[in-house]
From TrEMBL:
One of its GO terms (molecular function) is metal ion binding. It comes from Luteimonas wenzhouensis. Keywords: 4Fe-4S, Iron, Iron-sulfur, Metal-binding, NADP, Oxidoreductase. Its cofactor is [4Fe-4S] cluster. Residues 150-469 form the FAD/NAD(P)-binding domain. The keyword Hydrolase does not apply. It holds the Pfam family Pyr_redox_2. It comes from the Bacteria. This is Glutamate synthase small subunit. Gene3D superfamilies: Alpha-helical ferredoxin, FAD/NAD(P)-binding domain, NAD(P)-binding Rossmann-like Domain. Residues 29-136 form the Dihydroprymidine dehydrogenase domain.
Length: 493
């Protein structure tokens, strides 16, 4: 690499694609916040990469993307080759480029953070794939030899879609079932359109269908089709069910009018903004159908500091709230949400109150929420996961006035009865047990059932669900290959 290229980062500062102007956002613009790089901007930003001999960005990326290699291809204008390389490791790169918390992953590990600003890896990833699709590029499956084997996938979220992509590339037929009429899981019915334009999911569906993936949508496994039927009709089943058990904070007053659970709020609002209905029965009966109050002119308080909380505060801004406050029980450094999303929320006028633990939701008239009683905290000793626990400071209670309170305390998985009765075991926290002992990676305690994504790791990230779906497909292919080689395998038991 020439000297000029190596030191490009000295002349070209880090830059992100242009954002929707602030005044439009606060007036209710739901378009994707970030635009897309033009060819020259993408090449300039990609050219800032130092091409470190030991790319920490790759190591920190959960799917281990070949980042410096595709940055180099972008710099050279070889977009279609870059798209092919992106897909070697990541079945859904255009989604990850948009929604990954890059500041905690690839970009957080970039050597240029030492005073120069990380390479804008996510924005370049989005540029590569969007551009390549527009130019008609599609994954090349011309050398794939069909195996005649068939796999059913339950859940069209990122884990299920990633698994389908890899199976198709291995010549294994993939049929994806989802209880909703649209694919994407939380990408479609959770993450707001200002982070991910829903047309991006439509394009991915077209691509997958062209690869031979079949979708059976509006079909709930365990109700409309039995697991036993799938086990009879398919050689293996992958479970990408997600995590929809709402964390109940047990706050006094949480049943008052004006108190909303986060996901129903986002789903309902997304339905209004995008016109897309999550037809199909809600899993736990709560996550899609609520009456959405008019937030215009209201004081909105969001409890929780994760990605869901950030989506709620920024949605409330777009819905015309008079004030939006996020209360979180730890400090800013310990917030689980992406720092970029926190910065965007601040820019949009959201007030953050850190080290505030909610105690109760109050009401002046006995029926409608009027405020949240909180206590200040300091950080104490690390818990069993290494996170420092918030310790209430006696005598520091106060009330945050509110007309609407949105509770965003997170989610955990739950194993449905139809899976448990098939012998699929889970931990106490509802996470499906996979791998370990004689089992293949992502193989459950039932030899023909594999699982990955939030139902295995608990509520996490799109990119980790993609990684698990991708790697589960490898295990499934391994199982089916070994059966073909040894027709009387013990795994048939
Ligand atoms: P899901 O996306 O939940 O998909 C599971 C699918 O399975 C669903 O479509 C469901 O309908 C289907 N299903 C379940 N049971 C059945 C059944 N019996 N029959 C048929 N279908 C069934 N992550 C990020 O990386 N960045 C973000 O910015 C981000 N923001 C988020 C914002 C919100 C509001 C939320 C809730 C999450 C966010 N996440 C984010 C997390 C991310 O969306 C999830 O980790 C990811 O979607 C998990 O993928 P999955 O495939 O495991 O499950
Ligand atoms: Fe970064 Fe996510 Fe892309 Fe990996 S998949 S390079 S972590 S944006």
């Amino acid at each position: 690499m020439s000297k000029k290229q190596v030191f490009q980062f000295l002349d070209v500062p880090r830059d992100m694609p242009r954002k929707v102007p602030l005044e439009l956002r606060t007036e209710g613009d739901w378009n994707e916040l970030y635009g897309r790089f033009g060819q020259a901007e993408a090449a300039h930003q990609a050219g800032r990469c130092l091409d470190c001999g030991n790319p920490y960005c790759e190591a920190r990326c959960p799917v281990h993307n070949y980042i410096p290699n595709w940055l180099q291809l972008v710099e050279e204008g070889r977009i279609l080759e870059a798209a092919a390389l992106c897909h070697e490791t990541n079945p859904l790169p255009e989604m990850c480029g948009r929604v990954c918390p890059q500041d905690r992953l690839c970009e957080g590990a970039c050597t240029l953070n030492a005073g120069f600003g990380a390479v804008t890896i996510g924005a370049v990833e989005k540029y590569i794939v969007d551009t390549a699709f527009e130019q008609g590029w599609r994954p090349d499956l011309s050398k794939v030899v069909p195996t005649g084997r068939q796999v059913a996938i339950v859940g069209a979220g990122p884990a299920g879609l990633a698994c389908a992509d890899r199976l198709a590339r291995a010549g294994i037929g993939a049929t994806v079932f989802d209880r909703y009429e649209q694919i994407g899981g939380l990408l479609q019915f959770g993450i707001p359109s200002f982070k991910l334009d829903k047309a991006v999911i439509d394009t991915r569906r077209e691509v997958l269908e062209e690869m031979g993936v079949r979708f059976r949508l509006g079909v709930e496994v365990g109700r409309d089709v039995a697991l036993g039927t799938l086990l009879k009709d398919y050689d293996a089943v992958f479970l990408g069910l997600g995590a929809y058990r709402y964390t109940d904070g047990g706050l006094p007053g949480q049943d008052l009018r004006g108190v909303l659970p986060a996901l129903p709020f986002l789903v309902q609002n997304g339905r209004i903004v995008t016109g897309r209905e999550p037809h199909g029965r809600p899993i736990a009966g709560w996550e899609s159908h609520i009456e959405l109050p008019d937030l215009a002119g209201k004081r909105v308080v969001v409890l929780g500091g994760g990605d869901t909380g950030m989506d709620c505060v920024r949605s409330a801004v777009r819905l015309g709230a008079a004030s939006v406050t996020c209360a979180y029980r730890r400090d800013e450094a310990n917030m689980p949400g992406s720092a970029r999303e926190v910065a965007n929320a601040r820019e949009e006028g959201v007030r953050f109150l850190f080290n505030r633990q909610p105690l109760a939701i109050q009401s002046q008239d006995g029926s409608h929420a009027s405020g949240v009683r909180v206590v200040e905290t300091r950080l104490g000793e690390p818990d069993d996961k290494g996170r420092r626990s918030p310790v209430p400071i006696p005598g520091s209670e106060s009330v945050i006035e509110a007309d609407v309170v949105i509770i965003a305390f997170g989610f955990s998985p739950r194993v449905p009865e139809w899976l448990a009765s098939a012998g699929v075991q889970a931990r106490e926290n509802g996470r499906i047990i996979v791998g370990g002992g004689e089992r293949l990676p992502y193989q459950t305690t039932h030899p023909r059932l594999f699982a990955g994504g939030d139902c295995v790791r608990g509520a996490d990230l799109v990119v980790t669900a993609v990684q698990e779906g991708r790697d589960a497909a490898r295990s499934i292919a391994h199982l089916l290959r070994s059966e073909a080689d040894h027709p009387h395998s013990a795994l048939d038991a």
